[in-house]
Design goal:
Elements (H helix, E strand, L loop, with lengths): L5 E2 L1 H18 L3 E7 L11 H13 L5 E6 L3 E6 L8 H17 L4 H4 L3 E7 L3 E2 L2 E2 L9 H7 L3 H21 L1 H14 L5 E7 L5 E7 L9 H12 L6 E3 L2 E3 L10 H8 L7 H7 L3 E3 L6 H4 L16 E3 L1 H5 L6 H13 L3 H16 L6
Parallel strand pairs: 1-3, 12-13
Antiparallel strand pairs: 2-4, 2-5, 3-4, 6-7, 8-9, 10-11
Amino acid sequence: MEDYGILSRELFARMLFVERKRTERSGRSFVLMLLESTRLLKPEGDHHPLEEVLLALSRSTRDTDTKGWYKEGSTIGVIFTELGADADGRSVANALLTKVTKALTGTLTISQINQISLTFHVYPEDWDDNGPSGGIQPTLYDDLLRKAAPSRASLLIKRLMDITGSLAALVLGLPLFVAIAIAIKLTSRGPVFFKQVRLGQFGRGFTFLKFRSMCADNDPTIHQQYVKRFISGENGCEQAVGGQVQYKLAADPRVTLVGRFLRKLSLDELPQFLNVLKGEMSLVGPRPPVPYEVSHYDTWHKARLLAAKPGITGLWQVAARSQVKFDDMVRLDLRYASSWTPWLDIKILLQTPQAVFSAKGAQ
């Protein structure tokens, strides 16, 4: 197999990481092809089918393409690089499918070909104002997800914390819920709750709940324009409040008088405990973005949607809360995802009340 330049799983994962980083800088797309067969690619037993597959791949790939084990003994990956900044990834993938299939047909029997599954994944993915098409492909981030993947026990602890904490908050906070609902209904026209599609882990959409803090039927254009400027790092997104710089939309005319009070103490966020109870969010994690926000993300920003479920509070809220630029917020989210432990969640939860009642960075 060494004669065909097949890398080990660890080396191939490293090359996939390097290629993603190269794309983030250059803007040149690449295609990851996965050839899967649990029967033909087994390293033990008869090596003849495996040798035939490797021969076909060597004939249909370039020396600059990287070949290796995506999953040892079952899936071989090929990274087709240097497609060009203006290349259509889907068109390239279709052309590669034809080329690889032709090579396999020349070396394998029909029965063997029927045992093979070929999939193609283009990086970076297509994004629009509705977010990632079909969600983010975890396949392209296998190395990142394996590195940050918590144990089953840790995930169980986190889920138990989410269920216990959200139930306690909903039961104990019921009188406050009722009072806020009455205040909203008495002071402005419209529903008590604000519902919005947000993107959770892997870019999957869900219905996000808040107490309504704005006038009903408002125009979101002002926020969309601000978000675009904020993500791109344009000047004018910051404001001075109490001698400190904050990155928030100042004097939003859509916010009601009661809404300003709710936002000041983050009380508008309370209904999200229902999202946590349903498993769409966690108590702690990155904030879930709106679809039109992610359409302006740079390639590396998208990783914040991968390794952690979105949360009501998080490292950004307790460490900075609207006092850092967007890139720094993303770095905090990525740091949380890569270093997550149940104890870190507990520390963030304990620090959250101080961050809320200080109203630092809130509006």
